[in-house]
Inverse folding.
């Protein structure tokens, strides 16, 4: 185990964060800060980077708000950067440079030029997540003043630093227990818009299920503060400390329309300390129960209820050539049409005719549903592909008839039905599908 070395040459004077405000080539700053937010180490075009936000007692304004400071670490290798996965841990930095970036205060920690860092636990009663050193003597307070991770092969620590650490832990415990510190409310419409725009967003979640996906990853299910359920395939080495009922902040993720999360290299999952107000808030606000989706259809032929459910991936890429009917369960992401008028077409047995501007079907044809459903597999949530399923069976909707599509009251009925059908976060479809070449059509199935 690396031993603490007494400082021989350098003596470090640590600055309060509010006092670091001078931009100069000659000035290097040393500081302690409580971590408020952090990315995972990632590779940029030319180097490896970690971004984080820190605070200390001097960061608190007269109104009680926290003015956090951005800290950016640069290095030639991944191993030289801190892996921070808990809000409230404490970081010590030597030789940071101050600069203004986008009108904000930023401290650059350049590992190329003798900068260094140490990570300490923010709560003496909770063990470090990924310690670099072992608690060899087994004492309960071993990590109270010993960093659990640090840059380089060893670290230096002077006697006066114990008081700095102690005071910082006392302040953070008091401040974190009374204030949320991080954003505690996320709006559903903001998430929906971010998914639509294919942009990153943050989530506040609770883990409900962890399943072993393979030797490298876990399939994890989360509930969030907006009442939604999400899934993610997470690397075990990147997030080794997750367990059921953990409440977390998922930083900078994106998602597909089926609520399957996508984490980039910089994305991170952050825990909270037990004394934190945000931890207690999330544990009480988010249900521990996995949200069960409701089936909105029924199979009309009794024998089909005994059919095995076939995964969509198998249907579209490796179907049984000898069979024509299959049973499948899927969530409808959306209907590939622009308006209710587009849901209906006139079919003469050979081709479809548009009903734009018409109220009656052309001679020799009948009005039928002509709908393309964009769907994703309900049971096989690790399949993130979307598929097209066709709906042209007039008996599917018992309360909405295609021949009445032009009537105003039928429009309202149809809107209600399609809202239920496409509410993929709450509902799913159990259906019999008929294969016609490469296409699948819903048969022997009725909307409840």
């Amino acid at each position: 185990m690396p031993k603490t070395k007494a400082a021989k040459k350098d003596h470090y004077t640590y600055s309060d964060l509010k006092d670091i405000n001078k931009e100069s080539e000659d000035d290097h700053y040393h500081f302690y800060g409580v971590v408020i937010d952090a990315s995972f180490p990632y590779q940029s075009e030319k180097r490896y980077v970690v971004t984080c936000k820190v605070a200390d007692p001097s960061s608190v304004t007269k109104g009680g708000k926290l003015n956090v400071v951005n800290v950016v670490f640069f290095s030639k290798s991944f191993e030289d950067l801190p892996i921070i996965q808990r809000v409230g841990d404490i970081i010590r930095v030597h030789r940071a440079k101050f600069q203004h970036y986008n009108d904000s205060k930023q401290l650059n920690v350049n590992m190329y030029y003798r900068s260094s860092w140490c990570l300490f636990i923010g709560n003496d009663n909770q063990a470090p997540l990924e310690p670099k050193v072992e608690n060899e003597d087994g004492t309960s307070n071993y990590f109270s003043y010993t960093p659990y991770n640090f840059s380089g092969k060893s670290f230096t620590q002077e006697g006066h630093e114990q008081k700095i650490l102690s005071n910082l832990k006392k302040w953070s415990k008091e401040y974190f227990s009374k204030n949320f510190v991080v954003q505690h409310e996320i709006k559903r419409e903001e998430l929906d818009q971010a998914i639509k725009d294919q942009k990153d967003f943050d989530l506040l979640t609770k883990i409900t299920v962890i399943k072993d996906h393979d030797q490298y990853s876990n399939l994890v299910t989360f509930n969030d503060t907006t009442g939604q359920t999400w899934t993610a395939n997470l690397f075990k080495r990147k997030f080794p400390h997750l367990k059921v009922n953990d409440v977390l902040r998922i930083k900078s993720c994106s998602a597909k329309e089926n609520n399957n999360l996508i984490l980039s290299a910089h994305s991170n999952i952050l825990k909270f300390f037990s004394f934190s107000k945000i931890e207690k808030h999330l544990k009480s606000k988010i249900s521990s129960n996995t949200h069960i989706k409701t089936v909105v259809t029924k199979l009309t032929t009794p024998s089909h209820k005994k059919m095995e459910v076939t995964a969509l991936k198998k249907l579209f890429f490796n179907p049984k050539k000898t069979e024509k009917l299959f049973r499948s369960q899927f969530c409808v992401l959306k209907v590939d049409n622009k308006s209710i008028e587009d849901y209906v077409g006139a079919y003469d047995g050979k081709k479809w005719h548009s009903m734009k501007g018409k109220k009656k079907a052309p001679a020799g044809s009948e009005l039928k549903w002509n709908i393309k459903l964009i769907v994703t597999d309900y049971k096989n949530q690790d399949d993130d592909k979307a598929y097209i399923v066709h709906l042209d069976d007039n008996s599917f909707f018992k309360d909405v008839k295609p021949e009445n599509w032009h009537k105003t009251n039928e429009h309202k009925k149809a809107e209600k039905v399609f809202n239920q059908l496409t509410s993929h976060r709450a509902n799913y479809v159990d259906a019999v599908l008929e294969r016609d070449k490469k296409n699948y059509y819903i048969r022997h199935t009725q909307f409840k």
